[in-house]
Amino acid sequence: MATIHYAPDGISVDAPEGQTLLAAALSAGVPHIRACGGNARCSTCRVVVLEGLEHVDPRNEREQSLAEWFGLPPSVRMACQTTTRGPVRVRRLALDQEDVQIISRLRAGKAAALGARLPVAILVADIRGFTEFSASLEPYDVIYVLNRYFEAMGRVVAAEGGFINNYMGDGLSALFGADGQPEAASRAVRAALGMLEATAQLAPYLVTSHGRAFDIGIGIHLDEVVVGPAGASDTKLVAAMGGAVDFACRVESANEEVGSRLLVSEPVYRAVADKVSVGRTARIAAKRGPADCALHEITALR
């Protein structure tokens, strides 16, 4: 018999020789997800071995094939195929249906055929304190948490007619209006408030899985920029080029000084002033010239 401890459930079970981690979990009432029924097709039953990896039996042919396909490290195993010879502590990686979608999704995408100068709202978001948050995590967990966060942000952005055009470590930028559609500033602000709410909804999951959560800061600027596909032929993304992009990053970074979560530039504020509630006002030095630029904290939609 081998004792298996399942996190974050806090359940331990004694598994007979030859019983898989998945079968042992189900026998103990652990709600272990297995989208394909435990037939080594979907990988949603994957676990990370926190302790006792030396007691885990080698991967069989079916598991090895999946591991190579997904590029999984040795500590990440398929519970439906893995057996153990001694005590182990594992953590389920798929806790709900959103995790199933992330694990199962095949990546696909295409670049929009753009090449124009357009008024675009540029949204920049950055995770606060992600270096400290990720310091105690395994590399696999760091990437997985980022992917879950980016998935949530992408859904909110897409719902408002924008798209994420760049990822910068734990930051991202999104464009609204690059498709020529109107009300870019309003849609960007609605998306930003939705992103803050989605981050709050993600917090319980992060606390359950990793013992702590994080917050984000968002900055939005509206200006005319050049947009078009950029990158290698098979990896093109729609890029926004010009000083407006740098300024949007400066607007976002000002959140830390102001103590806010969402700041917008004066052009954005003028476009949405009658639709939002505002908090603090700040000023940052213009990159060129003596004038300061006003920034406005958006707290809610009216």
TrEMBL record:
<dbReference type="InterPro" id="IPR029787">
    <property type="entry name" value="Nucleotide_cyclase"/>
</dbReference>
<dbReference type="InterPro" id="IPR036010">
    <property type="entry name" value="2Fe-2S_ferredoxin-like_sf"/>
</dbReference>
<dbReference type="GO" id="GO:0005886">
    <property type="term" value="C:plasma membrane"/>
</dbReference>
<dbReference type="GO" id="GO:0006171">
    <property type="term" value="P:cAMP biosynthetic process"/>
</dbReference>
<dbReference type="InterPro" id="IPR001041">
    <property type="entry name" value="2Fe-2S_ferredoxin-type"/>
</dbReference>
<keyword id="KW-1003">Cell membrane</keyword>
<feature type="domain" description="2Fe-2S ferredoxin-type">
    <location>
        <begin position="2"/>
        <end position="96"/>
    </location>
</feature>
<dbReference type="GO" id="GO:0051536">
    <property type="term" value="F:iron-sulfur cluster binding"/>
</dbReference>
<dbReference type="InterPro" id="IPR012675">
    <property type="entry name" value="Beta-grasp_dom_sf"/>
</dbReference>
<keyword id="KW-0472">Membrane</keyword>
<dbReference type="Pfam" id="PF00211">
    <property type="entry name" value="Guanylate_cyc"/>
</dbReference>
<protein>
    <submittedName>
        <fullName>2Fe-2S iron-sulfur cluster binding domain-containing protein</fullName>
    </submittedName>
</protein>
<dbReference type="Pfam" id="PF00111">
    <property type="entry name" value="Fer2"/>
</dbReference>
<dbReference type="InterPro" id="IPR001054">
    <property type="entry name" value="A/G_cyclase"/>
</dbReference>
<dbReference type="InterPro" id="IPR050697">
    <property type="entry name" value="Adenylyl/Guanylyl_Cyclase_3/4"/>
</dbReference>
<dbReference type="GO" id="GO:0035556">
    <property type="term" value="P:intracellular signal transduction"/>
</dbReference>
<dbReference type="GO" id="GO:0004016">
    <property type="term" value="F:adenylate cyclase activity"/>
</dbReference>
<feature type="domain" description="Guanylate cyclase">
    <location>
        <begin position="121"/>
        <end position="252"/>
    </location>
</feature>
